[in-house]
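Exam revision sheet. Question 4 asks you to relate a sequence to its structure. Input first:
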Amino acid sequence: MSELDRIAAALERMAPAPLEAPDFDAAEAFVWHVSPDRLVPVPKVARVDLSLLLGIDRARDTLLENTRQFARGYPANNALLWGARGMGKSSVVKAVHAAVRAEGANLKIVELQREDLPSVSRLLNLMRDAPCRFLLFCDDLSFSHDDQHYKSLKAVLDGGIEGRPENVLFYATSNRRHLMPRDMIENERSSAINPSEAVEEKVSLSDRFGLWLGFHPCSQDEYLAMIRGYCDALGVAIDEETLRAEAIEWQATRGARSGRVAWQYFTDLAGRKGVALG
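Answer key, C-alpha cells:
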C-alpha cells in the first residue's frame, strides 16, 4: 500500500462516512449505540399498560395529551419527568408511547444513554428526514460537577442554528428537578468567580424543557390500589385482607413505598400463585 493510500485509510477511520438511515419500519422502538454509531431495533418493549399506572394521574394525562399533539403534527413541548424514585417516570413514557401508537400514530421511541449525549447531533441527522415521528428518550438523566455532557443536551432542546428536527421530541426522566445535585449548585455559588452566572448556566438547562412533570411519593392507599390493579388486570386472585397485610409488610421490609415496590410485591405474589406474567 502506498503512502497516500495509508493516509487516505487513516483519514477515513478518523472521519467515517455518514451512517445510512436504518429501516424505521423494522420496529416501533430503537436503542442508539455508538462506536460504531447504530440504531438497534427493539423487538419487544418492556412496559406496562397505561391504565395500570395509578397515583400519577395528572402527570400521566398531561404527557399523554402532549404526545398526542406531537404525533398529530401539532406543536408540543419537550418534557422533564422528575421526582421520587420508583414512581413510574420511565414507565409512563413507554406506556404513553404505546397508547398513542394504538391510536394509529406512526410514532417511534428511541432510547439514548446519558453517556452518549455527545453523539446526539449525529442521531438527530439520522432522524431528521425520516417519514415518521420520534420520541427521543433519556432515562435517569443527571449531571455531576465536572460533567460537560449537559452542553450536548442543548442541541436536542434548542437545536442550534439548524433547529431541532420538527419530527423529534425529547423526554427525559431524573430524580433531580435541576438535573444536578443541590450541593453542586451551592458549591458553584460559593466558589465561582461569577457565582450567579455559573449557576444559571447549569440550572437554566432544565428551564429549556417546556413541561416539568413532578412525581411524588405515594400514599399507602395509592400503593395498595396499584397492587390491586395489577392483580385484577393480570388475573392474580387474593382476598383484600391478605393483600393488605402482605403488601404493608413488604413495604416495611423495603423501607419504602412506591410504584416500583408495589410491582415487586406483585411479582412475588404472582410467582407464589403460579401466574405467568407474559
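Marking note for examiners. The domain at 14-215 is CATH 3.40.50.300 (Rossmann fold).
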